[in-house]
Specification:
Length: 301
């Protein structure tokens, strides 16, 4: 099945201003040929790193009404489901029901889960979402893309090294997740970020790592970009190593262009603001369509 024949049902947050969340994933997937239908999990004026944000966190009643409308019109011919940031326990519980319902009609459905809960030791979603992810959502996922802290949350182990990360990844494989991709972790000896991709093929495991420079700047939306890129390239290439490399290439190209833009603004005498660090998605169109692989994935034995 080509990308043009694929339909992605995305449960992601939406902002009026900014290039993140549903904007990130939808733009990337559509650019790579996927048809995307998005159900908002939250609706905010802008992302939460700004001084003020306004909007709504949607719940199970909101998503049920939208899903029932789709189902009543037989509009459930989706090949993939993608989930990102969710702010309500009841919304997430309903998503689990929806995944099961669609999969009952399409057993080949691929579910990609970005378990957005926190980073750097801090949760930024309600704590009651954790058991829903751990017990309901993760066993349904085909691909999951946690960061280091989220891997700790869903496995209950401390992750301080690559060996710890592999242990956590194997716990998720044990829950039925075929492909686990650690999107970032401070695990390398030289202070670099380490990303790890692992697929359980039943009789064997295929694993790779990529180390990338750590940047002190704060980015919002890179996790959404990462998860959407993994969905796209895993489908297109059917190759874990290549999809992993292309995903990192896309994210790093967008980050680099964003940092350059922010530095240019600062050189012009403007104070640094969250708006300067909005991801430069449109400007990175060619990098998304044709990633230039600069970091090679190294096999992990």
């Amino acid at each position: 099945m080509s990308a043009s024949d694929c339909g992605v049902l995305s449960f992601c947050p939406s902002v009026v201003y900014g290039n993140l969340w549903s904007t990130c994933s939808t733009f990337l997937l559509q650019l790579l040929g996927f048809d995307v239908s998005n159900i908002n999990s939250v609706q905010f004026s802008n992302h939460t790193s700004y001084k003020v944000f306004r909007g709504q966190v949607l719940d199970d009643k909101d998503v049920s009404e939208l899903y029932d409308g789709l189902k009543s019109n037989n509009l459930l011919d989706f090949s993939h489901i993608l989930t990102g940031y969710v702010g309500s326990k009841s919304f997430l519980e309903k998503v689990a029901e929806i995944i099961k319902d669609i999969r009952s009609c399409n057993p080949n459905l691929v579910y990609v889960c970005d378990p957005v809960m926190g980073d750097n030791g801090k949760m930024y979603v309600p704590e009651d979402l954790l058991p829903v992810y751990r017990d309901l959502i993760i066993p349904l996922a085909d691909i999951i893309t946690p960061n280091q802290f989220e891997l700790e949350l869903v496995t209950g182990i401390t992750v301080k090294s690559a060996q710890d990360a592999i242990k956590g990844i194997d716990i998720l494989h044990g829950k039925g997740v075929k492909t686990v991709v650690l999107s970032s972790g401070l695990l390398a000896d030289d202070g670099k970020l380490m990303c790890i991709a692992s697929t359980d093929n039943g009789s064997s495991k295929e694993r790779y790592k990529i180390e990338i420079p750590y940047l002190p700047e704060k980015f919002v939306g890179t996790g959404d970009l990462f998860a959407a890129a993994m969905l796209a390239w895993m489908h297109k290439d059917k190759n874990l190593k290549l999809a992993f490399e292309k995903t990192l290439a896309v994210v790093q190209a967008v980050i680099k262009r964003t940092v350059e833009h922010a530095k240019d603004a600062a050189r012009n005498g403007k104070p640094s603001t969250p708006a300067h660090m909005e991801l430069r998605l449109i400007q990175s169109k060619s990098d998304i369509e044709n990633p230039n692989i600069t970091y090679t994935a190294v096999p992990i034995s």
